[in-house]
Amino acid sequence: MSDINFSYSFGAPSTPSEQDQTLWSFNHHIVYPAAKNTVLVHPQRGGPGTLLQAEVAHALGFCHQFRTLEAHLEQVISEMPLVGDFREDTLQTLTALANQGLLESSQTAWTRLTQKSDDVALTPCSLCIITCDRPAALQRLLAQLAETTLPTDIDRIWVIDDSRSDAALAENARIVDHFATVFTEQVLHCDTALRNRLIAHLTSTLPEAHGAIDWLIHRKGWGNQATYGQARNLALLLNVGRRMLVLDDDVLPEAITPPLSVTDPSFTTGNAREAMLWSSQEEMESQASPLSSSPITLMLDSLGLPLGQLPDIKDKDHQLLAGTDGRLTAHYHANSRILLSQAGYWGDPGTGDSGSWLAYMPHATIKRALQDFTDLERTLGARATWVGYRGTSFSPYGIMSAQTGIDHTVLMPPYYPAGRGEDIFFGIMLQRLHPESPVLNHGWAIRHDPIDTRTSNIPLTPMSVAPSLSLLADWIGREPADQWGLSAERQLS
What we know:
The chain has helices at about 55-60, 70-80, 85-100, 105-115, 135-145, 165-180, 190-205, 210-215, 230-235, 280-285, 295-300, 310-315, 365-370, 375-380, 420-435, 470-475, 490, and strands spanning about 5, 25, 30-35, 40-45, 50-55, 105, 125-130, 155-160, 185-190, 245-250, 250-255, 265, 275, 340-345, 385-390, 395, 405, 440-450. The protein is of the alpha/beta class. Strands 7, 8, 9, 10, 11, 12, 13, 14, 15, 16, 17 and 18 form a twelve-stranded mixed β-sheet that branches. Strands 1-5-4-3 form a four-stranded mixed β-sheet. A two-stranded antiparallel sheet has the order 2-6. α6 (about 165-180) links the parallel β8 (about 155-160) and β9. α5 (about 135-145) runs parallel beside α6, α7 (about 190-205) packs antiparallel against α8 and α15 (about 420-435) packs parallel to α16. The radius of gyration is 25 Å and the shape is globular.
């Protein structure tokens, strides 16, 4: 088998690398079982596979973070204490594996991520506002946007109206008509009539997809369930081939610096948000530090650009990867485009309940909340929070939707039509379709200020585990190894 290299074992002779301070990561290989206590380690990005003894491959499983070989040695010994009797031999084996290419150096990874990328022609952008039975919120947001200098790339504003009430639909139509005379950009209203015309057009064009069309964008069959995903599907259908910024109607176009900020960008997991709580809205506002640029401009500046052209990483070097799990960067390259971007929340956490969302935060956030507040129920009831990211980061999938940027010049998945969790479900499916595209998490938060008063002291109740949309998203997100490299069209089917 000419495409299989020889096996390593602890104690194999080798010459230590001269680059003792180089950072290395075992990050781009798939491990397959083989015969006689060996495994086949095969690179995902092409090239020959390597047969290794099983215990060597097991040790490499502790070497995913970018660290020096000496640091990897200490990690392996901490996980496999018996290896400590063979320190020098083990270091030589790690060095040989690195020289053979089974580990990727931080310099190589950084070149892959930041080398000159292809020029991309960015499309015009639509600003889409999702609204449902809240004319006062729509009026407020459009009024504030009218006082904001919108980027020249934005040429139309869509109001995607998911209202049930005839009165709300009529009032929203009046609001749209008024602001159509205020903005220089087109202001368009996707109301019930337009939705029905779109459904009729799609059904006549694609009669074989009648059931799917109804399921994705028709209200029938969903009863009184909230159809957040249907409204977002309408936004996608109306903006094929364009970039789009999608806003909830109860946000304000103000970007606020996170209270726990960092300056260096990072590659992280999908659910790497953090949170900070305050006991009152007044206390929260005393900590607010607004940015001079609007969230519209800040998000649009990078949407659709390849990774190699982003100013956040262009002026950095490979040391930025120190401690990063290399598997989080393995699929990316300089031409990986930002197809989805998201920002944090400042104010209301955007959840339907008082506090169960806190349980899904990192341990440090939960610990900080428990230490800082004696009456956690009351604090959560104040709904005075920051939820988001400390700084610019890149993750495999998106999970937040108060303001999102979407580059719909490539094939996009639909949103799950009804219920909550549609944003996470969309993010997971987008990862499956375009695993080479990182999500850009902005290190600022958009102000989220619902018109309706949500301050309440709701008692915390025991959490229960039941099948839900998140379970389906988790299952879809577990991509089988043999499906890597399939086209987006095939993945979507």
